[in-house]
Write a structure and sequence with these properties.
Two copies of one chain form a homodimer.
Chain A lengths: L2 H15 L6 H11 L6 H14 L6 H18 L9 E2 L2 E2 L1 H5 L1 H22 L4 H15 L4 H11 L6 H26 L4 H28 L2 H4 L5 H4 L5 H5 L1 H21 L5 H13 L2
Antiparallel strand pairs in A: 1-2
Chain lengths: 287, 287
């Protein structure tokens, strides 16, 4: 399986699940953000986890789509005027710029219910596993995950914060969703607890590396590369690795987390070209 | 069991479940709206459904609290400036007026994950039942329920809409949550399908009666009685029963739905003082 193959399969499923019904406006708004050309990193990682362990990935498709919908929900709400106030995302107008703020908020809310219902109604697994997966999903979505990161992120704007708080924000805002993707994949692959723990660590390191690379490219790249307004973090004085450590030290930290990811793959004899490619792609983002 | 007894038990549980953790701000914002003196109609109806059929209600407490959290989530987001733009709710400042818009949006998002996790982690029922309950919860929360009603409601402002659309909005925006409460109660009481259908109809009629009474008191009562700015519906030219039928005809329709509720209780020999009291209290609201 190649990266692009996964991407196509995931996007076909997302399109299917999000078939337009009445009232059309809400479905169109949801589709606008979900079918908006994302990299699909999180669902690919979920599927690849299962494939790496069991040889097949099909059982993970509903959960993979649910995780991508959750990711899109968080982006729609993050982009709102009262949050990060972004007009562009992936080179296109953000949801609220196209559909208006009220519809954008409702589209996000709708995805937060739509996604777990995909797991409930389409996952071909026993009920115990389903409940486990749903719990992982909500751990990432709510006060134990993304929301905790986002509230601390907004709260830290313009403030001097500690390295602990910076790490906390990144681990919740970004790593939580990678963790959830890989943990759900692991649960569907029926792994033992020690393997689950190793894969969870991989996801945490990957999430940190990914967020540091995001901080670096926000500070150094143009609108054309980013697909959104650059240097936004600096403008609102957000807590970022670049602000905290400077550019060079941030790159060293990025490499550190990428190496830890590779160590885990090697030490556990996890054979996955996709994961190696993903880790390398993060390093390439900033060079 | 009296109304006030249920209320106390529910509020104690809500307080327990929403224990403040880090990051405190999000928990405080969630608590502000959830522990804000609501009537607790929906959780009481959920518990009373179980009690009416099985003689006990305790098994329903986690679901009852989840349904109340969902109700509060919908109110927090409905009150936002880009939605209904309300400064007051139950006589107190709305969530975004106290905590700011971004925190209010996140508190709503957080409740949408927190509530189903209460069902997952605290409901003492088998996994099949748990999945059924969760599905009912999301049917009410998402595009098949509240969100569908809210998007059509906003979309209809200032427009001439049909009676079908008005009924659709009310059934989704208001009845869906009563339906969900009573259906979850019925599932937990392990009723047969015909009884489930009768109780669902009861919830639908009750929801319509409740929303009509809401439309009437918005048009006729003062801030002191409402706890929020009166005549808001009229100001933004919302689709309401009062706008559509006028005050007298709306009261006739309200009585019609209340009578249908009583019919269902009587025809099925459902013995519940609480339900009769609730139906009567809706009629009393407008007189």
């Amino acid at each position: 399986m190649k990266f692009e193959d996964y991407k196509k399969i995931i996007e076909k499923k997302l399109d299917e699940y999000l078939e337009i019904k009445y009232p059309e406006k809400i479905y169109k708004s949801m589709r606008y953000s979900v079918l908006n050309g994302g990299k699909r990193l999180r669902p690919i990682m979920l599927l690849e986890t299962i494939k790496m362990i069991t040889g097949d990935y099909v059982i993970g498709l509903p959960s993979a789509c649910a995780i991508e919908m959750l990711h899109c929900q968080s982006l729609i709400h993050d982009d709102l005027p009262c949050m990060d106030n972004d007009d562009y995302r992936r080179g296109k107008l953000t949801n609220h710029k196209v559909y208006g703020e009220s519809t954008a908020i409702l589209a996000g809310d709708a995805l937060l219910s739509f996604a777990p219902q995909i797991i409930i109604n389409y996952s071909n697994v026993d009920k115990v596993t389903k409940i486990k997966i749903l719990n992982e999903f909500f751990n990432a979505a709510g006060v134990y995950g993304i929301i905790a990161g986002q509230i601390m992120d907004l709260d830290s704007e313009g403030k001097d914060i500690s390295y602990e708080t910076l790490s906390y924000i990144h681990s919740k805002k970004t790593s939580a969703l990678f963790e959830s993707a890989i943990r759900i994949g692991s649960i569907l692959a029926n792994v033992e607890n020690d393997i689950l723990n190793e894969l969870t660590k991989f996801a945490q390191y990957f999430g940190m590396a990914f967020q540091i690379s995001d901080d670096i490219i926000d500070a150094t790249q143009s609108f054309e590369v980013l697909g959104k307004t650059p240097k936004k973090d600096e403008k609102v004085s957000k807590a970022t690795f670049v602000k905290f450590f400077g550019l060079d030290e941030s790159k060293i930290k990025l490499n550190y987390y990428c190496e830890r990811c590779c160590d885990i793959l090697e030490n556990n004899k996890f054979k996955s070209k996709i994961f190696i490619e993903l880790v390398n792609s993060i390093k390439k983002r900033v060079n």
